[in-house]
Target: L-2,4-diaminobutyric acid acetyltransferase
Amino acid sequence: MHLAQIQTSTTTPPKDEIRFRMPEEGDGAQIWALVKESTLDDNSMYCNLLQCTHFADTCAVAEMDGEIVGWVSGYIPPQEPDVLFIWQVCVSEKARGRGLAKKLILSLLHRPACAEVRRIRSTITADNQASWALFGSVAEKLGTVLTRRPHFTRDNHFDGAHATEHLVTIGPFEQPKPLEVVRAA
Model:
């Protein structure tokens, strides 16, 4: 099949097929609604719009049957070009159990914006077992270690109103090959 044929194909993807892509400006409201349905701290819809535009290179959505069922937002800290900081990961109830969160994170590593990334960071509260399992699985897939330390503390940063956020670092690691991401589960 020629490239022109692939690009103009109008076939519909099979039901329940999940497609990964960069977020677009029009995705902000759907992402905001997805996060709202979860237990995550919610951001403003405007924040999600900025993530879909200003930070699109380091964010990804997963679509199933035309609906956004997965979201990962991240950015590269200006002073640390080898770090991808994962801000938020969310998967719809209907798409869970497929390793989607891990696949979304790993898919970012193949973006041109992440070419220099050798470490992934995030913050996680001590009681968030799902996130600890996710990031542990990402570290294992990348063949590296996960370290943690208190970062934003309950009393010093949250005035007692939020649990301490632990800084998680995965790495250093080598960039995985594209096929390794496809098979990540």
